[in-house]
Design a protein that fits this description.
The structure holds 2 protein chains of 2 kinds. Helix content of chain A is 16%, strand content 33%. Chain A is an alpha+beta fold. In chain A, strands 1, 2, 3, 4, 5 and 6 form a 6-stranded antiparallel beta sheet that branches. Chain A starts with a helix and ends in a 24-residue tail after the last strand. In chain B, 79% of the residues lie in helices and 0% in strands. In chain B, helix 6 packs parallel to helix 8. Chain B starts with a helix and ends in an 8-residue tail after the last helix. The chains are: A alpha+beta, B mainly alpha. At the A-B interface, loops of A face helix 1, helix 2, helix 7 and helix 8 of B.
């Protein structure tokens, strides 16, 4: 899963950063990114689909690693990735400039046990 | 030749601004693709008033892309010697600043990264632009060109922050500065620095005006018999 995130999200994200103008007030792109799986066993969302949470740390100018720069989850069946923006999760393509990707309800969240 | 070199810093600065405007223009075109969320917005999310923020960003960028080049040409001697064109372009620039750039800048300032200190920097810059534009316009209407020049220099100086701040951010990034600190310094440095430069230039101008006035007063009694220009700077002419 980690390799899948690196190949299908982190690498395109790095490439996307390279195309972005530096003459901007936008955050400077990190010098390096690393993927961490924050779960070793899968969880299941409301729809019963299995997913694993991940975090991406970023190293910026100055040399310090900023942990959890991006957090999200990847679905083990189809490899769909979602990233957390605020309190909601959006498709990972949201960060790659792939159009308006609205928040998706119910993904990456383990439903609260019924009382 | 001396005149050419004395004008060099001014012309160089205007050229630097024009170049900076070109880079900003190129990197801002993506903001007007209405089907996509601008990348600049991604790092701001979640926003309390997402639609208002996005509309403000687009108006702010459009207003900046119009007003910055206008301010650059308004600062050229060539246009200052043509009052009719200067007046028309000045009005367009003034309206764009007062009703487009500054109000939307205020909206965006509250979600600026870097917290309240950065917000305060943007608000201060906006306040200087607003107050000096109003002051400069009123001064021009009553024919007080010294006050008009000083006020408009302040406006242009704050407009130039858009370019100098971005250039500093790039330099800090290359130098490996901490990005959070770099963002604060790259904003407050140009905001305060450009205001200071304008004040120093105005002070120098005021002193020069006082000096000229003093020379004029001292030479006044001689004016009937001797031409002051010849006393102030004797001409090496033979005959006459």
């Amino acid at each position: 899963m980690q390799q899948h995130i690196e190949a299908d999200f982190v690498k395109p994200l790095d490439a996307h950063d390279q195309d972005t103008s530096r003459f901007s007030r936008m955050r400077r792109p990190p010098q390096e990114r690393r993927v961490r799986m924050t779960q070793t066993t899968t969880s299941k969302d409301q729809a019963g689909r299995a997913f694993l949470s991940f975090a991406i740390d970023a190293k910026f100018a100055g040399g310090d690693w900023r942990e959890n720069d991006i957090t999200g989850c990847v679905y083990s069946e189809k490899g769909d990735m979602f990233v957390k923006v605020g309190d909601s999760f959006r498709p990972a393509s949201f960060f790659l400039g792939g159009g308006a990707n609205d928040p998706v309800a119910g993904v990456c969240v383990v439903p609260a046990p019924k009382t | 030749m001396t005149r050419f070199f004395s004008q060099l810093p001014r012309r160089g600065f205007l050229l630097f601004m024009l170049l900076g405007w070109g880079f900003i223009f190129a990197s801002s075109l993506a903001y007007f693709d209405l089907g996509r969320i601008p990348e600049f917005m991604l790092e701001k999310l979640p926003l309390r008033f997402e639609s208002l923020w996005l509309v403000s960003l687009r108006i702010h960028v459009a207003a900046a892309l119009i007003s910055l080049p206008l301010c650059i040409v308004l600062m050229t001697r060539a246009l200052q010697r043509r009052p009719a064109i200067h007046r028309v372009l000045g009005r367009v620039a003034g309206m764009t600043l007062l009703f487009g750039l500054v109000p939307t800048g205020v909206v965006l300032a509250f979600d600026a990264k870097g917290g309240r200190f950065v917000t305060a920097g943007f608000l201060l810059s906006g306040a200087i632009v607003f107050a000096c534009t109003v002051r400069g316009v009123l001064a021009a209407r009553r024919g007080d060109l010294v006050t008009h020049q000083r006020a408009m220099r302040h406006v242009f100086a704050q407009m130039s922050v858009a370019v100098t701040s971005r250039a500093l951010l790039m330099m800090f990034d290359v130098a490996g500065f901490d990005p959070d600190l770099a963002y604060v310094v790259a904003l407050w440095g140009p905001v305060l620095g450009s205001a200071l430069v304008v004040e120093l230039l105005s002070l120098r101008g005021a002193r020069l005006a006082l000096l000229i006035e003093r020379i004029r007063r001292e030479l006044a009694p001689l004016a009937l018999s001797i031409r002051p220009r010849i006393v102030a700077r004797p001409a090496n002419r033979i005959g006459r």
